[in-house]
Design goal:
The chain is elongated and about 95 Å long. A hairpin with a 6-residue loop joins strand 3 and strand 4 (83-88). 20% of the residues lie in helices and 36% in strands. The chain has three domains: 1-29, no CATH class; 53-132, Nucleic acid-binding proteins (OB fold (Dihydrolipoamide Acetyltransferase, E2P)); 141-244, Beta Barrel (OB fold (Dihydrolipoamide Acetyltransferase, E2P)). The relative contact order is 0.14. By secondary structure, it is of the alpha+beta class. The chain has a five-stranded mixed β-barrel. A five-stranded mixed barrel has the order 7-8-9-11-10. The longest helix has 28 residues, at 18-45.
């Protein structure tokens, strides 16, 4: 019989016998190593978050021409961040109430940047009208009719405010954002992993927010006309024609 077989430990004693103490230490170490291994394996199996950032609490100033429809958009022609910037309000709301009456006007906007490697957005905190645009903006360019398979997400969260900003874990939040006026976007991922974003409008070019709520965060197929306006692609199609997959 080994020395350990003769050992006996009662829980209220200040120390366990040497053999039992060593066995407990080895068991705890093994459990910790197994837990670390399982945690590492689970982390490795997770899909990486989509790229994107939100400068929460940082205000920047942008000047450009504002377009109200179908979703508020600021076209910045100079400065540090040129290009087309979608506009949203603080929280889970679109910027329609902030931009109303300024279509085609030059404005100065103070707000926080939201962006990924393809799209830019501003959470509007202040808007100052500067007068009529110095020059009119060209209309959209028709690119043709295509079919796309992807996921409808809310653009504000997906571009950088939330991680993850798509899929079932984010569905409830996305529904609230899109219901509140945040532009809905079709996220399309190619076989090679390249991402494309198409902002959804109906056949007349109007916003579709209230008509896509039941299809958010679900795989869908949409067949429609693609138009480019500035840096933004829109997909024109009747929401009733969207197919859940």
């Amino acid at each position: 019989m080994s020395h350990n077989d003769d050992e006996f430990y009662v829980g209220y004693l200040p120390e366990a016998p040497a053999g039992i103490a060593a066995h407990v230490k080895r068991s705890i170490l093994l459990i910790l190593l197994l837990a670390a291994g399982v945690a590492g394996a689970l982390a490795a199996l997770q899909s990486p978050f989509d790229p994107g950032a939100f400068e929460f609490g940082i205000d920047r100033t942008f000047e450009g021409v504002l377009l109200e429809h179908p979703y508020p958009l600021l076209v910045v022609d100079d400065g540090e961040y040129p290009g087309s910037h979608l506009l949203v309000a603080f929280g889970k709301f679109g910027a329609e109430s902030l931009t109303a009456g300024h279509d085609g006007k030059r404005v100065r906007i103070t707000g926080s940047r939201i962006w990924n490697d393809q799209e830019q957005m501003i959470e509007v905190h202040e808007l100052e009208p500067l007068g009529d645009a110095r020059q009119s903006l060209a209309g959209g360019m028709e690119l043709g009719t295509f079919s796309f398979t992807g996921e409808i997400v809310d653009s504000k969260c997906h571009l950088g405010v939330m991680k993850p900003g798509r899929g079932k874990p984010h569905k409830a939040c996305a529904i609230l954002c899109i219901r509140g006026g945040v532009p809905p976007v079709l996220r399309v991922e190619s076989e090679s992993g390249e991402l494309s974003y198409l902002f959804l409008v109906d056949e007349q070019g109007n916003a579709v927010n209230d008509r896509v709520l039941e299809m958010i965060a679900e795989p869908v197929e949409i067949h429609g006309e693609v138009e480019r306006r500035g840096d933004v692609l829109t997909l024109r199609a009747d929401p009733a024609s969207y197919k859940l997959l």
